[in-house]
């Protein structure tokens, strides 16, 4: 993998936004600054291990996602002792451990993979009309569920339902990529 | 009514996807992303360069001294178990009359000014340093172990970086100058105060809680305090004595005029050869370092 620095640099630039966004799932608020460091550490580790990585983009993507996951979880678990007084922190860590795990979760892997992001937008276009409308307002226009409900004159519960239906549809679309 | 655990699991899973999509959106639509990526690549490049040159050095060393190493290893095994265990707390004190550089166990480099002292320990995954007096820190990267510098009035949480701290004994003022990277200042109670960006200087008053931030050129300021050697109206003997003490070498000199006085400035980070060249140009004498280190 990576015959030279040039191709490695291209790989890093391509991976950076996705991996950073992924790391920020774990490292928020006061920890947010560490996300960049985590990504850099992971890319450095990829460089160190370049001779052992198979030249298979899918496998390499799974490997870097796994590395970011491990480092972030490690960081969160390290801060558990210090932050045990914080409400919900332990719960957040256990949710993150379970639901952000990239192994056995091809959707998580696909979401943060630039090469597959095109197909996410294509899948959005294929959603039923109402779902698509609600999903676009939520995802692209950054409106919260209450704002969308007000805008469309429907209840928040209906918005929730549309969003979940949309996410489900996207999931099955993404699992087949 | 108790919710079906299967549904709860499904909901959490979908929530996770929603969070993931939002994080992706926020990151990709951030106007600073490209700049962040460019900066990250700069650091990464520098890291890889350092690593490659280290490897090249190690390889050369390995080939030349592997036999010697084997001999030492066998001898070491014969000598039995190690008798010295590193203490949990390391303490450093500088009474040398000038600034002095120390290396902490984690690889962090610290320059302490005269009279300053530092303790360093690891506690629950954090690297804790307490400083009295002034110091310059170039902190070794380790994202899993935050590095925290405590002074009498202020705590500084380090996010991978180089900076100086000036915290005079008996004063409520602490000043922090950031050269590169990022640090966060915390009050002694742990309240986050603010985050510094490079070339900012913060002066914190622990009594009033006031904090003033100004734009500075960090590099020259830090050099002046921790690296600059400045001699005015000094004879060649005095200059040579200063060079000998800074570099820990002996200098042999000839052909200069002992009655003349000069003004010279140099940085500790410059090589001794460069400094001696400048001295030759200034004084017309001949100087060479003999490596009989003190």
Describe the structure.
The complex is a heterodimer of chains A (177) and B (294). Chain A has 177 residues and is mainly alpha-helical. In chain A, 74% of the residues lie in helices and 0% in strands. In chain A, helix 3 (57-82) packs antiparallel against helix 4. The longest helix of chain A is centred in the middle third of the chain and has 26 residues, at 57-82. Chain B has helices at residues 5-28, 33-78, 218-226, 236-247, 272-283, and strands at residues 89-93, 100-103, 109-112, 117-123, 126-138, 147-150, 154-158, 162-167, 173-180, 183-187, 192-196, 200-205, 211-215, 228-235, 250-254, 261-267, 286-290. The termini of chain B are far apart. The model of chain B is unreliable at 82-87 (pLDDT under 50).
**Domain count of chain B:** 3
CATH domain class of the largest domain in chain B: Mainly Beta
Described by strand count, sense and barrel closure, the largest sheet of chain A is: none
Whole-angstrom Rg of chain A: 18 Å
Count the DSSP helices of chain A: 9
Low-pLDDT ranges of chain B = 82-87
């Amino acid at each position: 993998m990576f015959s030279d620095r040039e191709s490695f640099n291209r790989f890093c630039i391509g991976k950076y936004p996705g991996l950073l966004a992924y790391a920020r799932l774990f490292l928020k608020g006061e920890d947010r600054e560490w996300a960049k460091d985590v990504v850099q550490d992971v890319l450095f580790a990829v460089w160190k291990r370049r001779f052992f990585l198979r030249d298979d983009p899918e496998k390499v993507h799974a490997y870097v996602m796994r590395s970011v996951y491990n480092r972030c979880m490690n960081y969160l678990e390290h801060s558990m002792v210090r932050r045990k007084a914080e409400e919900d922190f332990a719960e957040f860590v256990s949710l993150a451990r379970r639901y952000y795990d990239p192994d056995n979760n091809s959707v998580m892997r696909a979401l943060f993979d630039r090469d597959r992001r095109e197909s996410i937008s294509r899948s959005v276009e294929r959603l039923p009309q109402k779902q698509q409308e609600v999903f676009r307002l939520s995802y692209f226009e950054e409106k919260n569920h209450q704002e969308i409900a007000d805008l469309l004159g429907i209840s928040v519960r209906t918005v929730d339902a549309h969003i979940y239906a949309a996410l489900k549809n996207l999931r099955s679309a993404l699992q087949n990529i | 009514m108790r919710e079906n655990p299967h549904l709860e699991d499904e909901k959490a899973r979908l929530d996770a996807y929603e969070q993931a999509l939002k994080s992706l959106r926020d990151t990709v639509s951030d106007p600073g992303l490209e700049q962040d990526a460019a900066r990250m690549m700069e650091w990464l490049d520098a890291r890889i360069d350092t690593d490659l040159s280290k490897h090249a050095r190690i390889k050369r060393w390995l080939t030349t001294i592997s036999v010697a190493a084997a001999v030492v290893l066998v001898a070491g095994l014969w000598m039995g178990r190690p008798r010295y265990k590193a203490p949990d707390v390391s303490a450093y004190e500088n009474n040398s009359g000038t600034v002095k550089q120390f290396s902490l166990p984690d690889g962090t480099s610290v320059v302490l000014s005269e009279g300053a002292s530092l303790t360093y320990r690891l506690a629950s995954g954090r690297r804790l340093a307490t400083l009295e007096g002034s110091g310059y820190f170039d902190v070794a990267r380790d994202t899993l172990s935050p590095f925290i510098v405590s002074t009498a009035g202020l705590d500084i949480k380090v996010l991978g970086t180089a900076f100086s701290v000036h915290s005079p004994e008996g004063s409520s003022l602490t000043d922090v100058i950031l050269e590169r990277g990022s640090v966060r200042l915390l009050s002694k109670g742990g309240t986050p105060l603010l985050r510094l960006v490079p070339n900012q200087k913060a002066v914190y008053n622990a009594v009033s809680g006031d904090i003033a931030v100004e734009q500075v050129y960090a590099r020259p300021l830090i050099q002046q305090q921790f690296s600059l050697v400045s001699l005015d109206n000094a004879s060649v003997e005095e200059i040579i004595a200063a060079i000998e003490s800074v570099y820990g070498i002996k200098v042999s000199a000839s052909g200069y005029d002992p009655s003349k006085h000069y003004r010279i400035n140099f940085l500790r980070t410059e090589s001794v050869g460069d400094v001696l060249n400048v001295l030759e140009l200034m004084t017309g004498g001949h100087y060479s370092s003999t490596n009989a280190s003190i």
